[in-house]
Amino acid sequence: MGDIRKRIESILKRYSLKSNERTLDRFIYLLSTLDEGDLTDRLLENLIIENLTIGESYFFRDLGTFDKLKTIFKSRPFWKILSIGCAKGEEVYSIAITAQQASVDYQIMGVDVNVQRIFEAKSGCYRFWSVRFLSEREINNYFVVKNNMYCIKEEYKKNVTFSNGNITEYNFGITEKFDIIFLRRVLIYLDNVGDIIRKVLSILKDDGYLIIGNGEYFPPLYEYFEPISPSSIAIMKKKAQTFLLDTSISTNKLSSSQPNRTREVLSVTNTYMSEKARNSSVPAFKNTINDLHGNLSFEEELHLVENYISQGKFNESYERLNVLSVKYPSQYVVWKYKALVELELLLKDKARESLKRALFLNHADEEIWQLKNFIELR
């Protein structure tokens, strides 16, 4: 896989992205489940963007997942939900908003190992980065804007709690089970993958849902979970043979009296899975791999633009923004970034035109007005 490492490092360098050696080694291990011929440059780029970039989260990340979730919510009146690695709470509040839109009752718990992130999640106040994909109407509906901070309205804090802790050591109680567990963009950064999978299996209801990141690549999960449909591969349910585990699985040491099947499942180790389990998960994943060959999503494209801008690579960012302005002409943030880059490239007249378009699409964004005032002074 030496050639794969070089290809990955080339893509990371191109976008000025960084990844530590341990995470990179883990990612390459996971890629080994695929034939090298399957890993086109476009597919590899998509996998890297989804798996090797952390960044800050934002509201309604993977919008298609939340659209599907709204439909799922309508199937029952009450939902108990857990968000693992909830960071600063954008995901948790996005779930709460979606649940209220579906008119269902809910309890949502967010858990993260970072104390500062939990503190910020409880406050519920965010900078523009976290809401940059929301429309003006959505911002007005969900937030109160104070001193350039976007604070989630109190109604969306209802039945929402946050807790600091390591999920594998967290004591939920022997009977506590969740209807939905969010595990998005978490596993690739952890060493104790086996512990996480065991924990999820033990606290997710048999008819519950596990939600991972859209385009996230983690074959070990396919040994125990399967997508609910070819069009919703980020939303998964337990495979039938794992249902029996809920009454016997535990985070404690196994006793010799436990069923063989349970001991087999619990043998998942920090090397992700046994060779047998790893090989059996490959066909299931390959059935969905073609979905990752498509174009990058708008959020992914914009994230790359933001990386270019932060590194001062304005020509590269401008090339992508020109494409995005054609593909997404109604996204004001594209025109705002376009104007910013045009100013850096001394394209003053074009910057004015881009600002006009941005203001037409969103006249409430203070950063656009600041750019407008700046250009008039130059």
What does this 3D model show about the protein?
By secondary structure, this protein is α/β, with parallel strands linked by helices. The chain has three domains: 2-53; 63-290, Vaccinia Virus protein VP39 (Rossmann fold), CATH 3.40.50.150; 298-377, Serine Threonine Protein Phosphatase 5, Tetratricopeptide repeat (Alpha Horseshoe). Helices cover 46% and strands 13% of the residues. The protein contains 16 helices and ten strands. The chain has helices spanning 2-14, 21-31, 41-51, 63-73, 90-101, 115-123, 128-131, 136-142, 193-203, 260-265, 275-286, 298-310, 314-327, 332-344, 348-361, 366-377; strands at 78-84, 105-112, 125-126, 143-146, 149-152, 160-164, 178-182, 204-211, 225-227, 235-238. The strands form two sheets. Strands 6-2-1-7-8-10-9 form a seven-stranded mixed beta sheet. Helix 13 runs antiparallel to helix 14 (332-344) and helix 14 (332-344) packs antiparallel against helix 15. The longest helix is centred in the C-terminal third of the chain and has 14 residues, at 314-327. The termini are far apart. Residues 246-274 have low confidence and may be disordered.
